[in-house]
Amino acid sequence: MNDFNFYKSQGISDAVEKIADQPDAKFIAGGTNLIDLLKYNLMTVSTLVDVNSIKEDTLSETDGAVLLNAFATNANTAYHPIIEERYPLLSKAILAGASAQIRNMASNGGNLLQKTRCYYYYDANTPCNKREPGSGCSAINGYNRNLAILGTSDHCIAVFPSDMCVALAALNATVCVTGPDGDRKIPFSEFHRLPGNTPHIDNNLLTAELITGIELPSKGFEKNYSYLKLRDRNSYAFALISVATAMELENNQITEIRIALGGVAAKPWRVQKAEDFLVGKTPTKENFALAAELIVEGAKGFEFNAFKIELAKRAIIRNCLMALNPASQLPGAQPSA
Amino acid sequence: MSIKPLIGQPISRLEGHLKVTGAAKYAGEYNVSDLLYGYVVNSTITKGKIISMNTDEVKKIPGIVEIFTHENRPSLAWFDMQYSDMDAPPGSPFRPLHKPDIKYNGQPIALIVAETFELARYAASILKAEYQTEAFKTDLEANLGEGRKPQPGLATMLKPPPPKDKGDIDLALSAAAFTSKGTFTHGTEHHNPLELFATTTVYEGKGKVTIYDKTQGTVNCQLYVGNVFGLHFKDVRVISPYVGGGFGSGLRPQYQLFLSVMVALELKRNVRVTLDRSQMFTFGHRPPTIQKTKFGSDINGKITALYHEATAETSLYEDYTETVVNWAPMIYPSPNSKMEYNLVPLDVFTPIDMRAPGGSTGLHAIESTIDDLAHQAKIDPIQFRLLNYAERDESVNRPFSSKELKQCFIQGAEKFGWDKRNPEPRSMRNGNKLVGYGMATGAWESMILPARAEAILTTEGKLIVKSAVTDIGTGTLTVMSQIAADELGLPLDQVTFEYGDSKMPFAPIQGGSFTVSTVGSAIKAAGKALRKKLLKIAQHIPHSAFKGLEIEDVVFQDGYIRLKLDPSKEIAFTALIHANKGKVIRTKNFNVPNLLKLKKHSRAAHSAAFVEVEVDEELGVINVTRAVTAVAAGKIINPKTARSQILGGMVWSISKALREETISDHNFGKYMNQNLGEYHIPVHADIHDLDVIFVEENDEIVNELGSKGIGEIGLVGMPPAIANAIFHATGKRINEFPIHFDKLL
Ligand SMILES: Cc1cc2nc3c(=O)[nH]c(=O)nc-3n(C[C@H](O)[C@H](O)[C@H](O)COP(=O)(O)OP(=O)(O)OC[C@H]3O[C@@H](n4cnc5c(N)ncnc54)[C@H](O)[C@@H]3O)c2cc1C
Ligand code: SF4
């Protein structure tokens, strides 16, 4: 890690200004990802602009919609009574991620911007197009158990590893940002990017733009929801497959459903066609199975992760069934009895 | 007044408070003055030569004191042999910064010495080497054909080669009513004790050093440093009272020790070298091993054929071996058997013992194959093992010194509720989860080595005992104190055990589950000698009531010697000190095990592991919901620390069977998950109901304490029991560890 300046920002505009006029400056929130990147010498910074002091309330409510503070911690968000009551899917997804200690530090904004967990990305001595454009992708013919099956390109097969964002995608959240040119809002589905031939660009945030909040529409799907995370140990491991399901039922018919997959692509994966297919149908295993086929359509497995295609389908079916009875979820969103 | 013996009592660790409050200092935490910090730079290629390094540029950074590489390291001991240590396998030991040649990925190529740790680490990030690369091989599976017999050497004493062939294996297999074959694959594992490897060297003046090292053998490191740097042994003191886990990784002197001492001597300064977590992956590890089994039985389930072959990785420069294939004929008598063990040398660091080396590898293959035979023969797995129970060790044709494995089966099965098992695979359920019960046998050889100990009666009539042995978190301090206290009939608080220091009487490295036998026996012998000496002094006191008596005629109780037949006749320890002109009374003892006597018996601890798993039928997710391990390991000196050892082994069993693996990329010849985020060991949520039973076992052969050692036995039987339970739950036999849940889809 090189020497750098540390600046405690006084507010949103102060933070943005500070970054805008310094090359190689970065915001730091919880630091749970950024500090690792610095310590592994994968990134060097001139200045760290600390945005923690911008913390106010964890969230605010207006007209039924909820605005999450970007600087609030994952833990405070997940345990907030409004989130637990109205957006339990989000609460469950956050709590399925990382460890209690990390969630106590990690911020909501930082969660959206965490880097992939591809092993080669973290090893500066191996080629990686995401870290060093044009150097090649070591994972395609290397170890790729934890990498993508959907939306990959010949340049990169990385997964965006967040749990929280899978729920945010299902909830149709909006990302609120402030940049040197003012404020703008980015729908969640347009926030993260697939690798294409620019795998080094993870998302559509522009230089010096600061995430200030995440808007949740009023609909929280608190009656029928479920988050399922499948991983190599019961806690403190990234998802191999995760599924967020948010559902609305009337007379045993699906009136609305959102299904987002994690662990499979460079962004939370939703397929409109599959959700449309389920609307108006009864919530049966057979129907969910048909939707699952639509969701993983076009999936491509690699040497160590081909199992994810079948696993994703089974996880979708199970999770949609669990959403019918959210009480069936065990702590940590293990598969339930 | 009679004192209840301390041996057998569940006494809490004496140093527990120091450890949980952070007062216990580890090797990298000794704050000596004027400390320099060393940070290691590791090779980024797997094989080749260093052509150049930008040391001149990096040296210009203010605060960088020196950079050591193969080009400017001081000239050191010439002969390979001088780099050897008590645990060195046959071959030529790795010599840090010896030559520009790169033998493995992550090899230390430079040490940056700076005024602060952070500065040294920063400089390390700038230091770059130009290499000339060569083709390498790191993939065991791809190079299986290159297996060859290991070179024999000193290590063979503790790790015997496979037993001789018996009968005609091919004929027996073709004639068998039931046969089971399997290929078992184990990957690399790294020890990852929580405490990082570190050495703090205090420069004490010309040719003299005091070293705080993370090690499992203070004397081993002392001898190594003396030999390599040409110092008098008496001028090298290695101290290591608290060790934050070793699991075998500290059995050999590791390269940070070499580097720290080298710099201290060269710069005449105090130096600390701490390795970081990823550097934990740049030296010894459990070797990947591929095994093949073919077992056969007659129609009644009596075993007629045992074939077990293992091929393991070693480095190109040393032949590290394990006892992988010797177990089956010891546990199961068979008229026909053939065992083979081969090594494939690859471009990696030499493997090193990791908890239950060999045993935890081999028993997995054996016990899963046995389980399959029992299944084919439609015999309950416990019945099958009883049917093939070895009353003698047929592999070497000797009786066992003791063997209560049957009791392990009986008591373990009872506690577990084995009788509720429906033998049919996939027959038991809990909701949408398949439930499986599995069991397996474990065995671990009971070894004993020579050791010295000293016992001193202080002027206050208290007892001090001394040994150079470490306490790698197992409870050695507590257990040795108990043994010593009982020997002199003193309460625990009157006894001090001084240890973890090469200045103390000789003890071998701490591993192989032989510490209690080895050091405990030495302490017992020293205590016994002290008792005799005290009696002698008592007899020389005028009008002594003890004249002409033998040691058997007196008892030592609470600071007094008393006549057995008339306890009112007594003399206080302090009176003996007075009689000794106010001087302490000391005895030193060298305890050499009676090999001739020992060799007449096979000596081993046994266990039976019982496991319940639940497997999600559609998603494959596996949970070990319950497990019981019943252990027969002779006398249990401290049931509390012993239980912790077995529990630790059981948690590790879950790790080994389901979680843990070092992931290699053979395109690069390197390990890819060098951190505890991605090197998956179990988390709390993975561990459910674990239970331990110690079965009563009397053994008068193994040593005077009758104890067999329990460090490894908890990790031998349970991994195969998990695999067997998964088979029972799902009908699928997965022979590759760790068993990832997606293999059950
Ligand atoms: C061992 C480990 C295990 C983990 N496991 C999981 C898991 O299972 N599931 C999961 O979802 N996550 C997991 N995480 C990731 C964790 O959730 C993220 O590291 C965390 O959310 C990042 O938030 P932070 O505030 O610490 O970000 P930081 O590390 O502070 O910042 C991350 C990035 O975001 C930028 N940034 C931060 N805040 C803002 C902002 N407001 N606007 C613009 N840019 C900003 C920083 O400049 C930096 O580039 C794990 C992390 C670790 C270390
Ligand atoms: S998958 Fe992406 S992140 Fe991983 S090595 Fe390839 S380019 Fe880099």
From TrEMBL, chain A:
Ranges for domain FAD-binding PCMH-type: 1-221
Any one GO MF annotation of this record: FAD binding
Keyword set includes DNA damage: no
SMART domains per UniProt: CO_deh_flav_C
UniProt keyword terms in alphabetical order: FAD, Flavoprotein
The name this protein goes by in its record: FAD-binding molybdopterin dehydrogenase
Organism for this UniProt entry: Pedobacter yonginense
UniProtKB/TrEMBL annotation, chain B:
Residue ranges crossing the lipid bilayer per the database entry: none
Positions of the Aldehyde oxidase/xanthine dehydrogenase a/b hammerhead domain: 21-135
Classification via InterPro entries: Ald_Oxase/Xan_DH_a/b, Ald_Oxase/Xan_DH_a/b_sf, Ald_Oxase/xanthine_DH-like, AldOxase/xan_DH_MoCoBD1, AldOxase/xan_DH_MoCoBD2, AldOxase/xan_DH_Mopterin-bd_sf
Classification via Pfam families: Ald_Xan_dh_C, MoCoBD_1, MoCoBD_2
MF terms in GO: iron ion binding; oxidoreductase activity
Full protein name: Aldehyde oxidase
